[in-house]
Design goal:
Blueprint lengths: L1 H12 L28 H8 L1 H19 L6 H29 L7 H14 L14 H28 L2 H4 L4 H16 L3 H8 L4 H27 L15 H12 L8 H6 L1 H4 L12 H10 L1 H10 L1
Helix pairs in contact: 2-10, 3-4, 3-5, 3-6, 4-9, 6-8, 6-9, 6-10, 8-14
Length: 315
């Protein structure tokens, strides 16, 4: 037992992967992408489109926090992992921002309310100075560790969603737009590729199990709430949903999400399945390496049309 615990403690101190994470530049073109990027599936199309508004502020926040923490990392390989993670997350934010600007806004979807909400959460509430308040010096490390725990929990969720996107065949079967399909699969594949980094860093700097447990519960509630609220807002702008009056606080959107997730065609991840995926993260022996397959992710990343296009333009 002592030897087992010693191995567990050693694994917690640094990087848990032997491979090197590869940042990639990508470029997406949105001129041919319809609002219903999954044909005849407006609910699912809007629901996934909301991800474009949820992610950028949080991903840029990840980058700022990790850049602040970099000098504290003692493990050389883990520091390399974190630096590659920062570059990947920055590229994710830029790609989703391009969808917001060149896809959704160009199609007269008002996204500012949703983006402002996310900016307030990450740029004010979870900032180095939350709501502009200067924290006492003794509490700064605890605040940073708390925020690293949030990142680790969110990254588990994005890895789960990344697996769902990477292995999903139904979107393509139904004629999904190639650009949006590539965006969600490319992003999902990179989430699998760097799935260990946030958890390794959290433990490396002293993150513990009890805090991880409660953070997980809070984060899953927050993420699902923000996702449904944002999707309801953009759906409410479409006359096809006028009679439904979509809202976070009305049951219709939750029921419809559940129905879409139960279908055999698997157009959306079922919300109950998504919550159930958190159970493994709550276990003391949780290991992110077991979430997804790195080679499958890299195989897609090597064939991504957006990544290939960026390489050709750089040549």
């Amino acid at each position: 037992m002592k030897k087992f615990l010693a191995r567990f403690r050693r694994a917690a101190r640094g990087s848990s992967i032997g491979y090197f994470i590869q940042p990639r530049k990508v470029r997406f073109e949105w001129q041919d992408t319809s609002i219903d990027w999954i044909p005849q599936q407006p609910f699912s199309s809007y629901f996934i489109n909301e991800i474009n508004m949820i992610l950028p502020a949080g991903e840029f926040w990840f980058c700022r926090l990790y850049n602040k923490i970099l000098p504290q990392i003692q493990d050389k390989k883990l520091k390399q992992d974190v630096q590659a993670f920062i570059r990947q997350e920055a590229m994710h934010a830029q790609a989703h921002n391009s969808a917001n600007k060149d896809y959704l806004t160009e199609r007269q979807i008002d996204i500012q309310r949703n983006i402002s909400l996310m900016n307030g959460l990450f740029n004010q509430l979870l900032a180095d100075r939350p709501l502009g308040l200067q924290l006492p010096q003794w509490s700064e490390r605890h605040w940073d560790l708390f925020r690293l725990g949030i990142v680790a929990t969110v990254e588990h969720m994005t890895c789960v969603l990344g697996k769902y996107a990477l292995y999903n065949r139904e979107w393509q079967r139904q004629g999904a737009d190639p650009a949006m399909l590539d965006l969600v699969k490319w992003h999902g594949a990179e989430e699998i590729e760097h799935r260990t980094v946030a958890f390794d860093l959290y433990r490396h700097l002293g993150g513990g199990y009890i805090a991880r447990y409660y953070l997980s519960v809070a984060v899953i509630i927050g993420v699902l709430g923000l996702w449904v609220d944002g999707a309801a807002h953009i759906m409410s702008q479409d006359p096809r949903f006028a009679d439904k009056k979509p809202s976070l606080f009305k049951p219709w959107i939750w029921i419809e999400w559940y129905k879409q997730g139960r279908k055999d065609d698997q157009i959306l991840p079922n919300p109950i399945w998504l919550v159930a995926q958190q159970i493994d993260y709550l276990m003391p022996w949780y290991d992110p390496v077991k979430e997804g397959n790195t080679q499958d992710a890299v195989n897609y990343l090597n064939s991504s049309p957006a990544a290939k296009r960026a390489l050709q333009q750089a040549a």
